[in-house]
Amino acid sequence: MRVLVYGHTKVAGGRDVRREIESIIPEGKVEFFSSASKLQLGLKHPENGFSIAVLFCSSRNELSKIKSLSHLLADLGIVLILPGRDDDLVTIGHSLLPRYLTFRDSDFGEVAEVLRRLVNTRKYMIAAMAEESAGNPALEERFRGTAVY
Predict the structure, then answer these.
(1) Cα angle at 111 between 22 and 47, to 5 degrees?
(2) What is the pTM of this model?
(3) Within its chain, how far is the Cα of 24 from the centroid?
(4) CA-CA 20 to 30 A from 116: which of 2, 55, 61, 125?
(5) Whole-number Å distance between alpha carbons of 78 and 67
(6) Which pLDDT value is given to residue 57?
C-alpha cells in the first residue's frame, strides 16, 4: 500500500501537510507530485500500488486539473484539501468522492488523523482479502507483493 500526495510545498500550508504525512507514512511508502501532469503519469502506472491520495489544491485551476483526472482516482481513498470554501469549489470537491474534505486554512492535524485511520482500514482490508485468498491460486497471485506496513 502506498500513498500519493499532490501539492506544492511552496504555497501556504503545503509544507505543513507534507510534514504531517511524513510523520505517519514510512519512507518509501509515499510519493509526492508537484504537478498535475506528473500526477497523471504516476496514476497511469498500476505497479505504483497507490491506495490513498492526499490532494492539496492551492487554486481553482489546480482543482480543475485534478477533476480531469477523476477517472484515475476512482479506486483511491481520497483526502482532499480545497483552496477555499466557495460553494462551487465544494461541489467540485465532492464530485471526486473524497473520504475527507477540508480547506487550506484548516488544522492539518485533522488530515493526519484521517490519513492514519485510512491507512489502518486499508491494512485490515488487505490482510482480510489475503487471508480469504489462501488456497486460491488466482487470488493469491493478485495479492502477492501487497505489502502491509
Answers:
(1) 55
(2) 0.78
(3) 13
(4) 61
(5) 12
(6) 92
Tens of pLDDT, residues 83-114 = 999 999 999 999 999 999 999 888 888 888 88
Pull the grid cell for residue 69.
Answer: 483526472
CATH classification at residue 71: 3.40.50.2300
Domain count, the chain: 1
Q: What is the pLDDT of residue 112?
A: 85
- The residue range of the domain holding 76 is 2-143
Sign of the torsion angle spanned by Cα atoms 64, 12, 114, 147: positive
Q: Which residues of 10-35 are buried (b: 16+ CB within 10 A; e: fewer)?
A: ebebbebbbebbeeebeeeebbbbee
Handedness of CA 99, 113, 64, 46 (dihedral sign): negative
Residues of the chain with pLDDT under 50: 147-149
